[in-house]
Amino acid sequence: MAFLINRLRLGEVLKVPVRYKNPSHHWSVLKKKKTCKDKALQHFDEFYGSVYGAEWENIRAALLEEKSKYVAVVNNFSDTDRIRSDLELLGAINLKALYNSQRNYLNSKLESKKEDKASQPDNLQNVMDTLISDSQVSEVQKIYPDDQQNLMDKLRSENDNLSNSDDTSELVKTEKKLKPVKMHSIEEDLNETELESDRIVDPSVNVAMLYEYVPATKIKGLNDWVLESDHYAFYNKGGDFKVDIVKESNLPFPEHLHVYTFEPNNMYRFPSPKKGSTDVLDYFLFDGASILPILALDIQAGDIVLDMCAAPGGKTLAIFQTLMPRILVANDLMESRVNRINNIIQQYLANLYETEKVLYVTEQDARYIDDKDIYNKILVDVPCTTDRHVLHSDDNNLFKPSRLKERLKIPEKQSEILINALKLITVGGTVVYATCSLSPIQNDGVVQVALKKIWEETDSVMIVKDMSEALRPLEYMYKFAKIELKYGHIAVPTAANNWGPMYFCKIQRVR
């Protein structure tokens, strides 16, 4: 007891300073907190800032917006005509009608340009010669005063007089009028010229210092594109591989696929869908850029289609709404993801599809599906960094420290899935590879490696479709980034139409 009392007395005498914790709202505490979303944004700023340049600021602002923009896909297993009418009453635009209208407008502009070009003079060289001649005359007139005879006219008249005259004495008289010009050596002229000594660099001065003022361009190497060091060195392997790229001028819309959205800068949200007379929901909503890979797939009547990584099922449902496939297989890896596909089928199709035995759901690793020479259309919407999701949610975020190794292996997994799809596709069939990432490594990089590997390991011959011309009518609604993509196309989010990102590449097997 006495010991405790002595300690209390000692504490009163000696005041020991104690450092207290700052409150949670203090700037020092907030600075130390760095969430997965913060890490993802920092990663994107460093990486995508160098890839997209000035465009990145606008893309970044759109990605950080909480609300994104959707399209509504009409459910043909409900009351189709009523649903379309209801959506149009809301002010929504039919994407197919918009595409056709814009395509007709662009074609008419192209025809008018051709007509204007045809109405120009045939002899373009004569026109150019006239322009050059007029330009030369105007330059001469600038040098000589207006009150003097034109130099060219004077020379021509003198030459004509000389050639027409029979009297050689006139030529002698003319020669006498000409004054001889005294020739000087260059050295003599330099001796008589006063040089500006203050503009001469003394040879004794070290001129190396002058180069300090010469602006140097920053050399940007692979570090701008490869952030994860050696893990991405794998993607240099396909750098020397070449593949034929064929232009495609048309983007066919399936007749029964009805997609609606709102005009640019209209961020009105579609109301939640209701059930129709068949007890299924009227329409389903998904990201507006997600429709692009489905359109690129060009579904035709009788196609046998595989959606390799189908969950949550939106793209599978959109493919099914074309009413074209003879068989559609929706596959995913895990039971939880397969359950999500089944849930969306139950909401929008119920038991209506079962009588035809068209739609099947499977649970397999897409890298090891071995159903060769069956599918003539394969959608490869691979798992990716999901750039929009990781900026808005810490749940299941790939930028968690515990998921670092998984994130680094994403491109390798993506390439393995695409390689298998290229092995499975029939001759003449089409594979569309897609991601919702802005990363050129996960996009063109994966395509490059997969194409080279399939060429080395099999006798298959692939071509890539350049869809730039086909997509031009959609530029009213979609912003396609102007970066150096070798194979695919990428729709990026904007303030006017905040959907995407969505990269897609169309590959066709020709042998």
Distance between the termini: 95 Å
Largest sheet: 10 strands, mixed
Helix proportion range: 25-40%
Tell me what portion of residues adopts beta-strand conformation: 5-15%
* Principal-axes shape call: globular
- The number of helical runs is 18
Q: Kindly state the mean pLDDT as a whole number?
A: 80
Describe what you observe in this structure:
The chain is α/β, with parallel strands linked by helices. The chain has 18 helices and 14 strands. Helix 12 (314-320) links the parallel strand 6 (304-307) and strand 7 (327-332). The protein is globular, with a radius of gyration of 36 Å.
Brief overview:
With 511 residues, the chain is an alpha/beta fold. The protein has helices at 2-13, 27-32, 36-52, 55-64, 80-89, 95-118, 124-143, 151-164, 168-177, 186-192, 291-297, 314-320, 335-348, 387-390, 404-408, 410-424, 441-457, 468-471, and strands spanning 70-74, 93-94, 245-247, 259-261, 283-287, 304-307, 327-332, 359-363, 377-381, 430-435, 462-466, 479-480, 489-492, 502-509. It has 18 helices and 14 strands.
